[in-house]
Design a protein that fits this description.
It contains four helices and twelve strands.
Amino acid sequence: MASPEVLALVDHLVYATADLDRGIAEVERVLGIRASLGGQHPIWGTRNALVALGPSSYLEIITPDPDHSTPSEGYPFGLEALGSSRLVGWAAKGSGLTNFRDAAAQHGVELGRVLSGSRKQTDGTVLTWKLTDLRCVIADGIVPFFIDWGKSPHPALVASRGATLVGLRAEHPDADRVLRMLRVIAVDLKVGVGAAPALIAEIDCPNGRVLLG
């Protein structure tokens, strides 16, 4: 079980898959909820579908968008080399991201550039946000990137409902190093020693209390 502080910090979990229909079906088998379509991210060449995990958090199923060519910098989250579908990262709620990024860098944690993003929802609403660089993957995705939705409505408000995030933890071969980085950015995520990096979410849903990793 994650601390209440960590759960309050979670903006969204990122479940990467090679094909959106396949990812939606995989998540539906685990949760008993069919994700709603989100939209396209032209800047990253991706598209997504969403399941709300609370009033201001959600699970994002993300995949390469067949309507766009591969970005010159590659896809975020290593989607071009993805094997099986899995949780590859998570976003934490943030504000004042440039100052936050600079402060973290002074203590050895490089969150990358602060970028702007946007996408159009299926109802035509355009969402805009600022975030630290998705391609700056830290500790295999266990250290989060940060996102600020500004005045945009939160995507969880229109995502498929019926699930609640009740826990989040991680495993990593070098857990002590990861924990030191998390302390720099004031994220109290539990990280245990594991053979391979992993994020594990505990979710209440129509199928009961399940684990998604």
